[in-house]
1-deoxy-D-xylulose 5-phosphate reductoisomerase (Parapedobacter luteus), 386 residues
Amino acid sequence: MGATGSIGTQALEVVQAYPERFDIQVLTAATNAELLVQQARTFRPRVVVIADESKYLGVKNALRDIPVTVLAGEAALEEVVRDGAIDLVISALVGSAGLRPTVAAIRAGKDIALANKETLVVAGQLVMELVQKHGVNLLPVDSEHSAIFQCMVGEAGATVDKIYLTASGGPFRGKNREYLTSVSCEQALRHPNWVMGAKITIDSATLMNKGLEVIEAKWLFGLQARQIDVVVHPQSIVHSLVQFADGSIKAQLGLPDMKLPIQYALTYPDRVENNFKRFNFVDFPELTFERPDTVAFRNLALAYQAMEAGGNMPCILNAANEVVVAAFLKGNVGFLQMSDIIEETMQRAVHMAAATLDDYMETDRKSREIAVELVTKAKNLYHIAK
Ligand code: NAD
Ligand code: MG
Protein backbone atom coordinates (compact mmCIF):
# COMPACT_ATOMS: atom_id res chain seq x y z
CA MET A 1 0.00 0.00 0.00
CA GLY A 2 1.57 3.26 -1.14
CA ALA A 3 3.73 1.53 -3.77
CA THR A 4 4.56 4.73 -5.63
CA GLY A 5 5.89 6.63 -2.61
CA SER A 6 9.36 6.95 -1.15
CA ILE A 7 9.02 3.84 1.07
CA GLY A 8 6.94 1.98 -1.53
CA THR A 9 9.50 2.33 -4.31
CA GLN A 10 12.37 1.37 -1.99
CA ALA A 11 10.40 -1.65 -0.77
CA LEU A 12 10.00 -2.74 -4.40
CA GLU A 13 13.77 -2.42 -4.88
CA VAL A 14 14.26 -4.77 -1.93
CA VAL A 15 11.67 -7.18 -3.35
CA GLN A 16 13.35 -7.11 -6.74
CA ALA A 17 16.68 -8.14 -5.23
CA TYR A 18 15.19 -11.39 -3.83
CA PRO A 19 12.89 -12.88 -6.46
CA GLU A 20 13.07 -16.29 -4.78
CA ARG A 21 11.72 -14.85 -1.51
CA PHE A 22 9.04 -12.40 -2.58
CA ASP A 23 6.13 -12.29 -4.97
CA ILE A 24 4.01 -9.16 -5.32
CA GLN A 25 0.25 -9.82 -5.27
CA VAL A 26 -1.19 -6.30 -5.01
CA LEU A 27 0.09 -2.76 -5.60
CA THR A 28 -1.81 0.37 -4.55
CA ALA A 29 -1.30 4.10 -5.09
CA ALA A 30 -3.23 7.32 -4.55
CA THR A 31 -2.77 9.31 -7.76
CA ASN A 32 0.47 8.43 -9.54
CA ALA A 33 -1.09 6.33 -12.30
CA GLU A 34 1.94 6.42 -14.56
CA LEU A 35 4.33 4.91 -12.01
CA LEU A 36 1.73 2.39 -10.83
CA VAL A 37 1.33 1.16 -14.42
CA GLN A 38 5.09 0.88 -14.83
CA GLN A 39 5.37 -1.04 -11.52
CA ALA A 40 2.56 -3.38 -12.58
CA ARG A 41 4.46 -4.21 -15.78
CA THR A 42 7.62 -4.97 -13.82
CA PHE A 43 6.18 -6.87 -10.84
CA ARG A 44 3.10 -8.46 -12.44
CA PRO A 45 0.73 -8.27 -9.43
CA ARG A 46 -2.71 -9.87 -9.73
CA VAL A 47 -4.41 -6.65 -8.63
CA VAL A 48 -3.62 -2.93 -8.69
CA VAL A 49 -5.64 -0.23 -6.95
CA ILE A 50 -5.63 3.45 -7.81
CA ALA A 51 -7.34 5.31 -4.97
CA ASP A 52 -8.10 8.31 -7.19
CA GLU A 53 -11.13 7.12 -9.16
CA SER A 54 -10.65 9.68 -11.92
CA LYS A 55 -7.48 7.78 -12.91
CA TYR A 56 -9.21 4.39 -13.21
CA LEU A 57 -9.79 4.31 -16.97
CA GLY A 58 -6.28 5.49 -17.72
CA VAL A 59 -4.74 2.68 -15.64
CA LYS A 60 -7.17 0.09 -16.97
CA ASN A 61 -6.36 1.01 -20.57
CA ALA A 62 -2.64 1.14 -20.04
CA LEU A 63 -2.69 -2.40 -18.59
CA ARG A 64 -5.23 -4.02 -20.93
CA ASP A 65 -2.61 -6.31 -22.49
CA ILE A 66 -1.55 -7.97 -19.20
CA PRO A 67 -3.63 -10.17 -16.87
CA VAL A 68 -4.19 -7.78 -13.96
CA THR A 69 -7.37 -6.69 -12.19
CA VAL A 70 -7.62 -2.90 -11.87
CA LEU A 71 -9.69 -1.41 -9.05
CA ALA A 72 -10.25 2.16 -7.92
CA GLY A 73 -11.38 4.04 -4.82
CA GLU A 74 -10.47 4.11 -1.13
CA ALA A 75 -12.86 1.24 -0.27
CA ALA A 76 -10.99 -1.08 -2.64
CA LEU A 77 -7.87 -0.68 -0.47
CA GLU A 78 -9.65 -2.43 2.39
CA GLU A 79 -10.93 -5.18 0.10
CA VAL A 80 -7.68 -6.14 -1.59
CA VAL A 81 -5.61 -6.61 1.58
CA ARG A 82 -7.85 -9.57 2.53
CA ASP A 83 -6.75 -11.62 -0.50
CA GLY A 84 -5.91 -15.17 0.56
CA ALA A 85 -2.63 -15.19 -1.38
CA ILE A 86 -1.17 -12.37 0.75
CA ASP A 87 1.11 -13.18 3.73
CA LEU A 88 2.32 -9.69 4.50
CA VAL A 89 1.13 -6.16 3.79
CA ILE A 90 3.54 -3.24 3.58
CA SER A 91 1.63 -0.27 4.94
CA ALA A 92 3.46 2.62 3.27
CA LEU A 93 0.74 5.11 2.52
CA VAL A 94 0.92 8.46 4.21
CA GLY A 95 -1.36 9.91 6.87
CA SER A 96 -4.47 8.71 8.69
CA ALA A 97 -5.71 7.33 5.34
CA GLY A 98 -3.59 4.31 6.28
CA LEU A 99 -5.66 3.41 9.34
CA ARG A 100 -8.62 1.60 7.78
CA PRO A 101 -6.72 -0.52 5.23
CA THR A 102 -4.09 -1.43 7.83
CA VAL A 103 -6.80 -2.46 10.30
CA ALA A 104 -8.50 -4.48 7.54
CA ALA A 105 -5.22 -6.30 6.87
CA ILE A 106 -4.72 -7.10 10.57
CA ARG A 107 -8.30 -8.37 10.85
CA ALA A 108 -7.60 -10.62 7.87
CA GLY A 109 -4.64 -12.09 9.76
CA LYS A 110 -1.89 -10.57 7.60
CA ASP A 111 1.53 -9.68 8.99
CA ILE A 112 2.20 -5.96 8.65
CA ALA A 113 5.42 -4.16 7.76
CA LEU A 114 4.45 -0.77 9.15
CA ALA A 115 5.84 2.45 7.71
CA ASN A 116 2.55 4.32 8.17
CA LYS A 117 3.22 5.55 11.72
CA GLU A 118 0.00 7.59 11.66
CA THR A 119 -1.95 4.33 12.09
CA LEU A 120 -0.45 3.84 15.57
CA VAL A 121 -0.61 7.53 16.43
CA VAL A 122 -4.32 7.75 15.63
CA ALA A 123 -5.50 4.44 17.07
CA GLY A 124 -2.58 2.74 18.83
CA GLN A 125 -4.58 1.02 21.53
CA LEU A 126 -7.16 -0.40 19.16
CA VAL A 127 -4.56 -1.48 16.62
CA MET A 128 -2.42 -3.25 19.23
CA GLU A 129 -5.49 -5.06 20.60
CA LEU A 130 -6.29 -6.29 17.09
CA VAL A 131 -2.66 -7.34 16.55
CA GLN A 132 -2.91 -9.44 19.74
CA LYS A 133 -6.31 -10.84 18.90
CA HIS A 134 -5.38 -11.92 15.39
CA GLY A 135 -1.87 -13.06 16.30
CA VAL A 136 -0.14 -11.13 13.51
CA ASN A 137 3.40 -9.74 13.44
CA LEU A 138 3.61 -5.96 13.40
CA LEU A 139 7.09 -5.27 12.04
CA PRO A 140 8.38 -1.70 12.22
CA VAL A 141 9.79 -0.08 9.09
CA ASP A 142 10.45 3.32 10.65
CA SER A 143 14.24 3.33 11.12
CA GLU A 144 14.19 4.27 14.83
CA HIS A 145 11.63 1.60 15.66
CA SER A 146 13.43 -0.97 13.56
CA ALA A 147 16.55 -0.11 15.57
CA ILE A 148 14.73 -0.63 18.89
CA PHE A 149 13.15 -3.83 17.55
CA GLN A 150 16.58 -5.13 16.48
CA CYS A 151 18.01 -4.31 19.94
CA MET A 152 15.16 -6.26 21.57
CA VAL A 153 15.73 -9.44 19.57
CA GLY A 154 17.00 -12.06 22.00
CA GLU A 155 15.90 -10.02 25.04
CA ALA A 156 12.50 -11.63 25.61
CA GLY A 157 13.03 -11.95 29.39
CA ALA A 158 14.66 -8.57 29.92
CA THR A 159 13.09 -5.48 31.47
CA VAL A 160 13.46 -2.27 29.51
CA ASP A 161 14.39 0.77 31.57
CA LYS A 162 13.87 3.22 28.74
CA ILE A 163 14.50 3.84 25.08
CA TYR A 164 16.19 6.73 23.29
CA LEU A 165 14.81 7.71 19.91
CA THR A 166 17.40 9.60 17.89
CA ALA A 167 16.41 12.61 15.77
CA SER A 168 18.50 14.31 13.11
CA GLY A 169 17.14 17.70 14.20
CA GLY A 170 16.18 18.47 10.61
CA PRO A 171 17.28 21.40 8.45
CA PHE A 172 16.63 24.04 11.16
CA ARG A 173 18.51 22.47 14.05
CA GLY A 174 19.98 25.21 16.25
CA LYS A 175 17.72 27.95 14.86
CA ASN A 176 15.58 30.13 17.14
CA ARG A 177 11.94 31.19 16.87
CA GLU A 178 12.83 34.50 15.25
CA TYR A 179 14.62 32.68 12.42
CA LEU A 180 11.82 30.14 12.07
CA THR A 181 9.15 32.85 11.60
CA SER A 182 10.16 33.39 7.99
CA VAL A 183 11.49 30.02 6.76
CA SER A 184 9.99 28.82 3.46
CA CYS A 185 8.69 25.39 2.56
CA GLU A 186 11.55 25.01 0.02
CA GLN A 187 14.01 25.39 2.92
CA ALA A 188 12.03 22.97 5.07
CA LEU A 189 12.00 20.39 2.27
CA ARG A 190 15.81 20.21 2.22
CA HIS A 191 16.45 17.47 4.77
CA PRO A 192 20.16 17.02 5.61
CA ASN A 193 20.26 13.19 5.76
CA TRP A 194 17.15 11.56 4.28
CA VAL A 195 15.19 11.86 1.01
CA MET A 196 11.54 11.17 1.87
CA GLY A 197 7.96 12.08 0.97
CA ALA A 198 6.96 15.74 1.42
CA LYS A 199 4.77 15.28 4.50
CA ILE A 200 7.33 13.42 6.60
CA THR A 201 10.06 15.84 5.46
CA ILE A 202 8.09 18.80 6.85
CA ASP A 203 7.36 16.76 9.99
CA SER A 204 11.11 16.24 10.37
CA ALA A 205 11.74 19.98 10.11
CA THR A 206 9.14 20.75 12.83
CA LEU A 207 10.10 17.74 15.03
CA MET A 208 6.50 16.52 14.74
CA ASN A 209 7.93 13.43 13.09
CA LYS A 210 9.76 12.64 16.34
CA GLY A 211 6.59 13.39 18.31
CA LEU A 212 4.62 10.94 16.18
CA GLU A 213 7.44 8.42 16.60
CA VAL A 214 7.33 8.73 20.40
CA ILE A 215 3.64 7.79 20.29
CA GLU A 216 4.38 5.02 17.77
CA ALA A 217 7.06 3.63 20.12
CA LYS A 218 4.74 3.72 23.12
CA TRP A 219 2.34 1.35 21.38
CA LEU A 220 4.83 -0.84 19.53
CA PHE A 221 6.93 -1.56 22.60
CA GLY A 222 4.33 -1.15 25.38
CA LEU A 223 6.11 1.73 27.14
CA GLN A 224 5.09 4.64 29.37
CA ALA A 225 5.75 8.24 28.28
CA ARG A 226 8.52 8.63 30.87
CA GLN A 227 10.37 5.66 29.37
CA ILE A 228 10.77 7.36 25.99
CA ASP A 229 13.46 9.99 25.49
CA VAL A 230 14.41 11.89 22.37
CA VAL A 231 18.04 12.75 21.68
CA VAL A 232 19.18 14.85 18.72
CA HIS A 233 21.94 13.12 16.76
CA PRO A 234 22.66 15.12 13.59
CA GLN A 235 24.73 12.41 11.82
CA SER A 236 21.79 9.90 11.77
CA ILE A 237 24.14 6.94 12.28
CA VAL A 238 22.86 5.69 15.65
CA HIS A 239 19.28 4.84 14.70
CA SER A 240 18.04 4.48 18.32
CA LEU A 241 18.96 2.85 21.64
CA VAL A 242 17.49 0.66 24.38
CA GLN A 243 18.56 0.86 28.01
CA PHE A 244 17.83 -2.29 30.03
CA ALA A 245 17.16 -2.70 33.77
CA ASP A 246 20.87 -3.26 34.51
CA GLY A 247 21.82 0.01 32.80
CA SER A 248 23.30 -1.66 29.75
CA ILE A 249 22.51 0.18 26.51
CA LYS A 250 22.21 -1.45 23.08
CA ALA A 251 22.13 0.63 19.93
CA GLN A 252 21.68 -0.14 16.25
CA LEU A 253 23.97 1.74 13.84
CA GLY A 254 24.34 2.10 10.10
CA LEU A 255 24.29 4.58 7.26
CA PRO A 256 20.96 6.34 6.83
CA ASP A 257 19.24 4.15 4.22
CA MET A 258 15.60 3.09 4.60
CA LYS A 259 16.20 -0.02 2.54
CA LEU A 260 17.84 -1.71 5.54
CA PRO A 261 14.86 -1.39 7.95
CA ILE A 262 12.50 -2.24 5.06
CA GLN A 263 14.53 -5.35 4.26
CA TYR A 264 14.67 -6.42 7.92
CA ALA A 265 10.88 -6.10 8.26
CA LEU A 266 10.44 -8.26 5.16
CA THR A 267 13.01 -10.95 6.01
CA TYR A 268 12.64 -11.04 9.83
CA PRO A 269 13.82 -13.08 11.66
CA ASP A 270 16.43 -13.71 8.96
CA ARG A 271 19.26 -11.35 8.12
CA VAL A 272 19.87 -11.47 4.42
CA GLU A 273 23.00 -10.47 2.51
CA ASN A 274 22.83 -7.34 0.37
CA ASN A 275 25.14 -4.94 -1.43
CA PHE A 276 24.13 -1.77 0.49
CA LYS A 277 26.95 0.66 1.18
CA ARG A 278 28.70 -0.16 4.47
CA PHE A 279 29.32 2.25 7.34
CA ASN A 280 32.93 3.23 7.87
CA PHE A 281 33.85 4.54 11.34
CA VAL A 282 36.71 6.74 10.14
CA ASP A 283 34.33 8.63 7.81
CA PHE A 284 32.45 9.68 10.97
CA PRO A 285 35.08 10.53 13.59
CA GLU A 286 32.40 12.35 15.59
CA LEU A 287 28.96 11.16 16.56
CA THR A 288 27.30 13.93 18.59
CA PHE A 289 24.21 14.08 20.79
CA GLU A 290 22.18 16.98 22.16
CA ARG A 291 18.86 17.76 23.79
CA PRO A 292 15.95 18.70 21.49
CA ASP A 293 14.85 22.34 21.63
CA THR A 294 11.14 22.12 22.45
CA VAL A 295 10.81 25.91 22.82
CA ALA A 296 11.63 26.55 19.16
CA PHE A 297 10.10 23.24 18.02
CA ARG A 298 6.88 23.06 20.03
CA ASN A 299 5.39 20.16 18.11
CA LEU A 300 7.46 17.65 20.02
CA ALA A 301 6.07 18.99 23.32
CA LEU A 302 2.53 18.95 21.90
CA ALA A 303 2.93 15.31 20.91
CA TYR A 304 4.01 14.38 24.47
CA GLN A 305 0.96 16.30 25.77
CA ALA A 306 -1.34 14.43 23.39
CA MET A 307 0.18 11.11 24.45
CA GLU A 308 -0.30 11.92 28.15
CA ALA A 309 -3.91 13.01 27.52
CA GLY A 310 -4.50 9.70 25.73
CA GLY A 311 -7.79 8.55 24.16
CA ASN A 312 -8.43 10.35 20.90
CA MET A 313 -6.05 13.26 21.60
CA PRO A 314 -3.18 11.87 19.47
CA CYS A 315 -5.76 11.47 16.67
CA ILE A 316 -6.67 15.17 17.05
CA LEU A 317 -2.98 16.14 17.03
CA ASN A 318 -2.36 14.05 13.92
CA ALA A 319 -5.36 15.37 11.98
CA ALA A 320 -4.48 18.99 12.75
CA ASN A 321 -0.90 18.29 11.77
CA GLU A 322 -1.89 16.83 8.40
CA VAL A 323 -3.96 19.95 7.69
CA VAL A 324 -1.25 22.45 8.67
CA VAL A 325 1.50 20.59 6.82
CA ALA A 326 -0.58 20.65 3.63
CA ALA A 327 -1.20 24.38 4.18
CA PHE A 328 2.50 25.06 4.83
CA LEU A 329 3.42 23.20 1.62
CA LYS A 330 1.05 25.54 -0.26
CA GLY A 331 2.63 28.59 1.38
CA ASN A 332 -0.56 29.43 3.25
CA VAL A 333 0.72 29.37 6.83
CA GLY A 334 4.09 30.10 8.39
CA PHE A 335 6.35 27.56 10.08
CA LEU A 336 5.52 28.58 13.66
CA GLN A 337 1.81 28.95 12.98
CA MET A 338 1.66 25.20 12.41
CA SER A 339 2.20 24.55 16.14
CA ASP A 340 -0.28 27.28 17.14
CA ILE A 341 -3.04 25.76 15.01
CA ILE A 342 -2.35 22.23 16.25
CA GLU A 343 -2.48 23.44 19.85
CA GLU A 344 -5.74 25.31 19.33
CA THR A 345 -7.30 22.32 17.56
CA MET A 346 -6.32 20.15 20.54
CA GLN A 347 -8.08 22.64 22.83
CA ARG A 348 -11.23 22.89 20.71
CA ALA A 349 -11.85 19.32 19.55
CA VAL A 350 -13.84 17.01 21.83
CA HIS A 351 -11.53 14.80 23.91
CA MET A 352 -12.67 11.23 24.55
CA ALA A 353 -10.90 8.88 26.94
CA ALA A 354 -11.69 5.78 24.89
CA ALA A 355 -12.61 5.45 21.24
CA THR A 356 -13.78 2.94 18.65
CA LEU A 357 -12.63 2.89 15.02
CA ASP A 358 -15.68 4.98 14.06
CA ASP A 359 -14.91 7.45 16.86
CA TYR A 360 -11.39 7.87 15.50
CA MET A 361 -12.69 8.43 11.96
CA GLU A 362 -15.14 11.02 13.29
CA THR A 363 -12.46 12.69 15.44
CA ASP A 364 -10.17 12.81 12.42
CA ARG A 365 -12.90 14.47 10.32
CA LYS A 366 -13.96 16.99 12.96
CA SER A 367 -10.40 17.93 13.91
CA ARG A 368 -9.60 18.55 10.25
CA GLU A 369 -12.63 20.85 10.03
CA ILE A 370 -11.43 22.87 13.02
CA ALA A 371 -7.87 23.02 11.71
CA VAL A 372 -9.02 24.06 8.23
CA GLU A 373 -11.02 26.90 9.76
CA LEU A 374 -7.98 28.02 11.76
CA VAL A 375 -5.79 27.78 8.67
CA THR A 376 -8.20 29.99 6.72
CA LYS A 377 -8.00 32.65 9.43
CA ALA A 378 -4.23 32.37 9.72
CA LYS A 379 -3.81 32.45 5.94
CA ASN A 380 -5.34 35.92 5.64
CA LEU A 381 -3.12 37.30 8.41
CA TYR A 382 -0.07 35.50 7.00
CA HIS A 383 -0.51 36.94 3.51
CA ILE A 384 -0.98 40.45 4.95
CA ALA A 385 2.20 40.01 7.03
CA LYS A 386 4.17 38.77 3.98
P1 NAD B 1 5.16 9.43 0.02
O1 NAD B 1 4.35 10.67 -0.01
O2 NAD B 1 6.44 9.39 -0.72
O3 NAD B 1 4.26 8.20 -0.51
C1 NAD B 1 2.99 7.96 -0.04
C2 NAD B 1 2.32 6.82 -0.78
O4 NAD B 1 1.00 6.65 -0.26
C3 NAD B 1 2.16 7.05 -2.28
O5 NAD B 1 2.30 5.81 -2.96
C4 NAD B 1 0.73 7.54 -2.41
O6 NAD B 1 0.18 7.20 -3.65
C5 NAD B 1 0.03 6.78 -1.29
N1 NAD B 1 -1.11 7.50 -0.71
C6 NAD B 1 -1.09 8.76 -0.19
N2 NAD B 1 -2.31 9.11 0.24
C7 NAD B 1 -3.12 8.06 0.00
C8 NAD B 1 -4.51 7.82 0.19
N3 NAD B 1 -5.32 8.75 0.73
N4 NAD B 1 -5.00 6.62 -0.19
C9 NAD B 1 -4.21 5.70 -0.75
N5 NAD B 1 -2.90 5.86 -0.96
C10 NAD B 1 -2.36 7.03 -0.60
O7 NAD B 1 5.38 9.07 1.56
P2 NAD B 1 6.58 8.26 2.21
O8 NAD B 1 7.68 9.19 2.54
O9 NAD B 1 6.87 7.03 1.45
O10 NAD B 1 5.92 7.87 3.61
C11 NAD B 1 4.97 6.83 3.75
C12 NAD B 1 4.81 6.51 5.23
O11 NAD B 1 6.03 6.00 5.72
C13 NAD B 1 4.48 7.73 6.08
O12 NAD B 1 3.60 7.35 7.11
C14 NAD B 1 5.82 8.13 6.67
O13 NAD B 1 5.69 8.76 7.91
C15 NAD B 1 6.48 6.77 6.83
N6 NAD B 1 7.96 6.80 6.82
C16 NAD B 1 8.61 7.25 5.72
C17 NAD B 1 10.00 7.28 5.70
C18 NAD B 1 10.78 7.71 4.48
O14 NAD B 1 12.00 7.62 4.46
N7 NAD B 1 10.12 8.18 3.42
C19 NAD B 1 10.72 6.89 6.84
C20 NAD B 1 10.02 6.44 7.95
C21 NAD B 1 8.63 6.39 7.93
MG1 MG C 1 11.80 7.60 11.56
About this structure: The first strand starts at residue 26 and ends at 29.
